[in-house]
């Protein structure tokens, strides 16, 4: 009986959305990568190379999705598990700075067999869970309004994580993680005065971070990164250099029009838009499938964000609420940065589009995060349907007893 109630409480709309986006992304990765994989001097692989690898990524991601959807999310309130995640995040991010592989001028990857692992992606989920864990405990103890004891502890962790990622350098991922942390802080109920204090601490922290980067000798403002801003501001005046990727992306979007050229009929993927199956896959979707393809992706990702925020509002457990806010922020911020970059709205940062772009680390982490959201949704729905809401007096009595 309990098992049936739990099954009925799952948010199957999120499960369906997840698999629709993964399948759609897999099809588009094959379409966008087959010419580049087979003809590029950089790869010279079989035409199905990236398609086959993404199939494996989706299978591993689906396993992570179901594990996080089934195992109760409150298990992450265990302090030993939290400490393991925190220490593991620091260790991996520090280790990759010394022994990691350099890809696109960023030392962000480990090679594990034939696969690549990006620790910065794992740090996204670690930051969400640790921030929710700390602020949930502060809410229970009544220390949430204390700036020193209640507000600062997760901030130190957040800043250090972003600092290590910034050193790789991976500015886009560092910005995403920092933004996720800020969204969770605002949702935690720390109060207006503490937020003002945080702004001051943030200014000092950024100054220290910049000083530390200068002293480390890392060249953050590389020619490539400066070129991204130049290409963003004046793409058609730098069409053969810094503005090349954006111009080719805009050509793809513009030539697709409303109806698109048809699946597999893209011109830009024929070597004009390099590695289109990664950061610029949405440009190929626009070219081949027009507004219909764009609609599938935007509505799917938008629905995940909307449901995440709805779950956060409905959840009675602060820990679950904060996790839902963090996961929703992660999907929203990362999607905006990817879509903004490929359309010329913001500078290009090299951030993947969740479930659509090629990538193993991103697929696994995003799948686990969505599974976590489905898990919170299930417990929230179960509480609302099968457990009576406790009165304010009952809640106060339980707090005093605890």
From TrEMBL:
Family the UniProt entry places it in: Belongs to the SEDS family. FtsW subfamily.
Reaction(s) catalysed by this chain's protein: [GlcNAc-(1->4)-Mur2Ac(oyl-L-Ala-gamma-D-Glu-L-Lys-D-Ala-D-Ala)](n)-di-trans,octa-cis-undecaprenyl diphosphate + beta-D-GlcNAc-(1->4)-Mur2Ac(oyl-L-Ala-gamma-D-Glu-L-Lys-D-Ala-D-Ala)-di-trans,octa-cis-undecaprenyl diphosphate = [GlcNAc-(1->4)-Mur2Ac(oyl-L-Ala-gamma-D-Glu-L-Lys-D-Ala-D-Ala)](n+1)-di-trans,octa-cis-undecaprenyl diphosphate + di-trans,octa-cis-undecaprenyl diphosphate + H(+)
One GO CC annotation: plasma membrane
Alphabetized UniProt keyword annotations: Cell shape, Glycosyltransferase, Membrane, Peptidoglycan synthesis, Transferase, Transmembrane, Transmembrane helix
GO BP of this protein: cell division; peptidoglycan biosynthetic process; regulation of cell shape
Organism name: Mangrovibacillus cuniculi
Mode of membrane association: Multi-pass membrane protein
Function: Peptidoglycan polymerase that is essential for cell division.
Major subcellular location class: membrane
Leading EC class: transferase
Subcellular location: Membrane
Superkingdom of source: Bacteria
One GO molecular-function entry: lipid-linked peptidoglycan transporter activity
Keyword Protein biosynthesis (UniProt): no
EC number of the protein: 2.4.99.28
InterPro entries: Cell_cycle_FtsW-rel_CS, FtsW/RodA
Residue ranges crossing the lipid bilayer per the database entry: 12-38, 58-76, 83-104, 147-167, 173-191, 198-217, 280-306, 318-337, 357-380
Official protein name in the record: Probable peptidoglycan glycosyltransferase FtsW
